[in-house]
Amino acid sequence: MRETYDRVIIGAGMYGLYAAVQSGRNGYSTLVIETEDEPFKRGSRVNQARLHNGYHYPRSYATAAKSQKYFDRFLNDFSDCIHTDFNKVYGIASNFSWTNGSQFKHFADNLQLVCEETDLEPYFYRSAVEKAYRTIEYSFDAQRLKAKLLGQIDPGICGFRFGTTICNVVKEDGHFIVTLDSGEQFETPYILNATYAGTNQIHDLMGYEHLPIKYELCEVIICDVSEHLKGVGITVMDGPFFSIMPFGFTGYHSLTTVSNTPHYTSHDSLPAFPCQEEGGRCSPGHLRSCNQCKHKPETAFVEMNQMVKKYLKSDIVIRYVESLYTVKPVLKTSEVDDSRPTVIRQYSQNPEFYTVFSGKINTVYDLDDILR
């Protein structure tokens, strides 16, 4: 028997669960469909866990301003999920940086961000880093965010289907008929595509235009650090550098580098990688979890650690714990100015179909207008 929902949300990451919470609060019966066996298994978990406040985008004022706009609201709404008890330092590299120290300070001042010059001595080699600034930037805990959002969802009005995929969607009398690989069917006048790396895969299924995306198969290193770095997060800007910062409340740090975090890059409209040719169930038309794949790339920890050693003093030691992998999509237009816009587009009016595409947790509030 075909079930009917006011809304169907595809994807159970941050954006999908937030949409489910708001839809339920607005009285809409909602179904969330997720290909993984639980929420937050991909992009919402596998990232730096940075709660952006704007500092990271000195070449894209619009992206920085949007991040700053929602910073306090997100911090207030999810305060118990945000690790705030550490110092965040931005270092500006002496060479190969798109932005110098005075430009970074001017940029932060224009946004009225806290940006206080601090001594290089505790962390950086003076020959490698021009300036260092103390900033206000925090780390979110993905597991706590997931638990909080799930706790806000009314099970009487919202249902879930995990570990399943959509194999067909057709329009019929102002509704979508959604068919899962299990054979289940659902009828709805409203679909939100919140699949992030799977955006164009859903568009392909629906016959909608693809977003201009490139894909990076990325590795985030989870590491332990020297005692004097445990209460510190460091980002070196603005070019082929690195970030090492607390990973939520785990007690570990995340380590990423611009050059080595992406192992493979695909410029196709659907994500095609060499590892897919090794076998398994992953394909350009249907991404699977990289973390469970035996064909995922070998860790680049050695290369990342070598990068860090060029800038951080020798008494700072980084110890490898584990690697987390996921596919990160990036709008091709972002290659010009490093912008990270939140894209929300409507592809059908009756029935309604929307896609949201964003790589920043705290711009989730951009969804509010289409969730009322």
From TrEMBL:
InterPro entries: FAD-dep_OxRdtase (IPR006076), FAD/NAD-bd_sf (IPR036188). Residues 8-216 form the FAD dependent oxidoreductase domain. This is FAD-binding oxidoreductase.
